[in-house]
Write a structure and sequence with these properties.
Length: about 110
């Protein structure tokens, strides 16, 4: 599958990942009650938007549209499996589609 707007897709995935990682939308650990109403409201909105059906749909879409392997990918995987699993250290996930997709996919499970 050829993406016409690959850079746009990467930016959209980065925005989604940023929303999911936003500290203001997470409840602090170890506290029974949060006294800040904005934190509660942010967490509630995130929970409503990212309900189980939405997360399942996002995962399914990422797997079926962005994790697809090209014939070159399959040939590299067959010839050199260790080389295929490259170390995506640093911030390459911000600029490359595959690492960005992987980062969003992993963030959906946190």
């Amino acid at each position: 599958m050829v993406l016409t707007y690959e850079r746009f897709t990467i930016q959209c995935l980065n925005i989604v990942k940023g929303i999911m990682q936003c500290a203001e939308f997470k409840l602090p650990k170890g506290t029974e009650q949060v006294k800040e109403p904005l934190i509660l409201q942010g967490h509630q909105m995130k929970t409503e938007v990212l309900d189980q059906n939405t997360v399942c749909h996002m995962c399914r879409h990422l797997v079926t549209h962005y994790f697809l392997l090209s014939s070159d990918d399959l040939a590299l995987w067959d010839a050199e499996p260790e080389s295929f699993a490259t170390d995506e250290a640093g911030e390459s996930w911000k600029y490359s589609l595959r690492p960005c997709t992987e980062a969003v996919f992993m963030e959906l499970f946190h």
